[in-house]
């Protein structure tokens, strides 16, 4: 199946393939952008509604706390009236007349508060002497019943405690209400007597507040849970709060809030909803807000639909442009293809460029024309090329013969000098012959032992030239002889010391060659006590080592030896290794370098005889 599909594609023209590739690239880009856009858009849409739920949760939390806090402040009504404080702090049992007077006075004060605050239905106070003072419509036995159901320890700690909603026991009034109870710590400082204040609030007031928040968004729902039971549901009537589905939601959030998850997705009334739950710090109620997840999906689909429409228009535009440009690009290629078929028949003619093109196709035609031109020239130069090749082979053989010829000639000079007992010429010829053989037989590296042998050959020649004018001191341990260094690394430095330091001095001089090992590095020093150099010259030479390609041209013969050594160290060992120069006028010059210390494994071969 796959092979047949590939065979089917082979006859397709290059223009069709180019067009298909272009469309596929555009479609892949659009689809990838659509995928990325869709994922990000869904996250943004979901995040928007999560932020909306957070905002409603924060607002509800603040409104409930402020409402309960403001209402609970009414329990301090007696603090502004000294007579009320005196009545409520009495600890002895009252006579009937005193009791009636106190009750009427306290009741009038409480009734005024009830009339001023429409959300309060009744106020009750249990005094230290056991008397209960209430507003006119309060049911006196209800206070003790309510307090007995509450957490006494929370009350003694000074916290306000709120009761669940319950039906009013007042005759003819069945409205639900909640009670806010506070322990009178300002009266019972030692907490020896139970004394409380209770404010009854019409639950309808809280329902109106929560309903107003829910009505700001028709799709928003609010649920309030207390002690595992739903006490308020914005989308359900009060008599249906005990339904199984509602209680299942209450039980779920009772267990899940401890997990720290801010948002949950649940099904309710056969529809998916996004829930956000928060515990009110003051009432300990679990306040839950929810919205249908279809809102998220609808917003996502609406935005995605617009993007798909725009992408479709872009694809159609791209297809039309692809047709136009593919024809424009392929036309000269078709012409070039026709001309290339004629090459097989020996017809070598150039393709004319009729259009003023400067693109890749123009360069392709130009390259083809140049190729045709080179093919024509190749025919004419075929014989000459063969002759040049033979000549190059002869030159290569000659280059191999010349070094051996010079080496053999030096040996002949040495033999003739020996026969005629001209020792100086014999020594110089032998030393030069050994140096030349060392150059042609050794690779890029040599042992310190072999390098020193060549230095000694060079010094032997110089000692004949400058008889008795210098001495050479070697500060090299024999343990370092097997270590490898670059071939002819020392000879240019020694030669530099002779020509620029010791020879201009005139008198006797000393040359010191020192090699020491420090860790895994070899430290090499060539020092003379010659004429030295000026600070300007020293700075110029050291600048060669810092900026070798800026100080002098690579073709310059000035300071060639030093530049050559420096370049070889950097190229062979790397940028971490160095050479530096120090000198003082009429005192001497010292050249130092540091290279890696690598020991030759077959040192016996390199340190053996010549």
Q: Briefly, what is this?
A:
The chain is an alpha+beta fold. It has helices spanning 2-9, 14-72, 82-88, 96-116, 141-148, 152-156, 203-215, 244-256, 293-341, 360-380, 382-419, 423-441, 448-465, 491-502, 535-546, 548-551, 560-573, 603-606; strands at 120-126, 132-134, 161-162, 166-167, 176-183, 196-202, 221-226, 229-233, 263-268, 271-279, 286-292, 445-447, 470-476, 483-486, 509-518, 521-528, 578-584, 588-596, 598-599. It is a multi-pass membrane protein.
Task: Supply database-style keywords.
6-stranded antiparallel sheet, single chain, 610 residues
Would you identify the regions where 5 or more consecutive residues have pLDDT less than 50?
Answer: 383-402, 549-555, 604-610
| Helix amount | 40-55%
> What is the residue-averaged pLDDT?
76
* Strand coverage percent: 15-25%
Count of individual beta strands: 19
Rg is 53 Å
Output the structural class.
alpha+beta
In one word, what is the shape?
elongated
H/I helix tally? 18
- N-to-C CA distance: 74 Å
User: How many strands, which pairing sense, and closed or not: the largest β-sheet?
Assistant: 6 strands, antiparallel
